[in-house]
Amino acid sequence: MHHDFPAFPLDQLALRGEADAPALNIKGNTYSFKELNSRVSRLAAILRARGLKPGDRVATWLSKTETACLMPLAAARAELMHVPANPLLKAAQVEHILSDSGAKLLITNKARAGQLDDAANQIVDEKALVAEIDAATEELPPLPDGFDTDKLAAILYTSGSTGRPKGVMLSHANLSLGAVSVAQYLKLAADDVTLAVLPLSFDYGQNQLLSAWQAGGCAVPLDYLMPRDVIKACGRYNVTTLAAVPPLWVQLVEQEWSAEASAAMRRLTNSGGALTPSLVKDLRGIFGGKTDIYAMYGLTEAFRSTYLDPALIDDNPTSMGTAIPFAEIMVVTADGKLAGAGEEGELVHAGPLVAQGYWQDSERTEQRFKPAPEFSEYGGSAVYSGDTVRRDADGLLYFVGRDDAMIKTSGNRVSPTEVEEVAIESGLVAEACVLGRKDERLGAAIILFARAEPGVEDAAEKLAGYLKTALPNFMQPAEIIWLDEFPRNANGKLDRNGLAETL
């Protein structure tokens, strides 16, 4: 299938920009594309010299360090599979990832290494590794154009809304075409500066580097503690591109933005949950009309599926848009037919961005990855998302809910998203999360977790009244639980599992 698509070996992203143009600005060092390529080559040679062979897995457990940024390309150049573990994971979760992937080598720092049981893996100290890269003379050349891009380049473990993390297998083609697709629809250019605040172990986070380099632009990785740090960095580096998930946008719009922090901003991108009309309005208030706001939808099993043309967001703030380049997005009814306009169905994604399945888990692979429906133009393997969506008469897609998150209450199926959106539109609530709690009478009772909009008086009394007028009886929460802060998972999304455990 890939012969129709401009796939290339992933490590060639280090060759995309002008030799002297900045590619990576990290902790006070700026590396040009020439230096980026040289450091990728040296790290690839070092990994090979440690006895790793093509197809071996090499893991990283790092914050946004230089090595964490080089590894996706260096592992690819050495024909290894990169297995990045989120720095926020606990030792037990990292041990699961190491044993499940069979990683031969783990690159981490001393403090993290000390938390692990003596693993069978070789543990490489990152500080020593950087010194080795600095001193190295041997370089591994870029992979040739004829290289088989169906070979695996990475295994990304999903934070998973359910169960233990699954390793999603991604080929060179999956990742290189993902970079081309995003750089194309975001209209990234060589003078763009992307602030990378999302974890690099997360497909959306890693793509910030890959798409920036594909465009010949510069990436600025940032580990931030407070939302203020993000805003300061936007001013300091003249950031043009900022990507985040909804909980971070909510925190960012509650801050004061200086003129210099927003001055250079060309585009904001959101994935990992829907934007709300009030959030879009708040972002407009800060950035005005000169900054494009991109709403997007993705799933690790196919990276990214849809984006909304930024010209449409003010009138369609809750839409997830249409297919990104190289993706075919179908809405499929329960009986396997193509859904009509306004009809709900499962989002099914076909095309070359579809991952190669779950690492050593044929059972779960078969549940999620199946042959594309007969009416598919691309054919081949498709990922069945488990998300219910509908397409309106204009062809725009709307998220209805996750099949496994739908609440069945007194005979009705209720989408948590719908109740959350209404709660936020009240203007009383900054963040909301809706879950079902087992209930003898109803089957499941609707529980709304809410964080009050800062500065709002009597939010609790006002919200109950507002919901009574805005929602039908069967969608009314049985209980509203007010929180000062929501739990987040390692990718910065709302931690629904953590909340569910409190029920």
Describe the overall structure.
This protein has helices spanning 33-49, 66-77, 91-101, 110-113, 126-135, 172-185, 203-214, 227-236, 246-253, 259-263, 277-287, 362-368, 416-425, 459-470, 496-502, and strands at residues 22-26, 29-32, 57-61, 81-85, 105-108, 122-125, 152-157, 167-171, 193-196, 218-221, 241-244, 267-270, 292-297, 306-307, 319-323, 328-332, 344-350, 369-371, 381-391, 397-402, 407-409, 412-414, 429-439, 443-452, 479-482. The protein is of the alpha/beta class and 503 residues long. Among the domains are: 1-140 and 149-174, Rossmann fold (3-Layer(aba) Sandwich), CATH 3.40.50; 405-502, GMP Synthetase, Chain A, domain 3, CATH 3.30.300. The strands form 6 sheets. Strands 9, 10, 11, 12, 13, 14, 15, 16, 17, 18, 19 and 20 form a 12-stranded mixed beta sheet that branches. Strands 4-3-5-6 form a 4-stranded parallel beta sheet, sandwiched between helices. α1 (33-49) packs across α5 (126-135) and α6 (172-185) packs across α7. The protein starts with 21 loop residues before the first strand and ends with a helix.
